[in-house]
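Hi all, long-time lurker, first post. I run a small reading group and we've been trying to get comfortable going from sequence to structure in the token notation. Rather than ask abstract questions, I figured I'd post a concrete chain and ask someone more experienced to write out its structure so we can walk through it together at our next meeting. Sequence below, copied exactly:
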Amino acid sequence: MLTLFECRIRYNKPDEETGKEKRVTEAYLFDALTYTEAEARVADKMPEYISGEWALASIRKAQYSEIIPSEGDRWFKCRVTFITIDERSGKEKRTAQNVLVMADDIKGAVDAVVKGMNGTTADFVVTGVTESNIMEYFPLFDKEEPTIQNPTE
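-- Answer (accepted) --
Happy to help. Here is the structure in token form:
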């Protein structure tokens, strides 16, 4: 299970139209074990993305069961409902989960969810898609980070 934290960062950003600086707050998603670790990761990563002064405005746990990175430039929150049959009663059981997907548009987000869920044993339906305010997702372990090897090998 992922432990994700939505961290809202407040900073001054130049306005594209007027060139004047305006105060903005943007959301970034961090995979971390605790609030403290998430805050430390924010302090580590944000200077790479934001020049100048910035502040951590808020931090809260995010409720996503899975992250599906794919081709695209925006993050979409997809509500996926899994359909199973209760063996005892024979009744249909529906369980909803939120999935965060990167795509260019809503159709691309649905396609990415279907592709990402390929291989699951339960039937599912995408019941909702909304554009998220997440700017970037930082996984706990980047692909570029070296893996720790056992020194006894």
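A couple of things your group might point at:
Residues 72 and 134 are 13 Å apart (CA to CA).
The chain has a mean pLDDT of 87.
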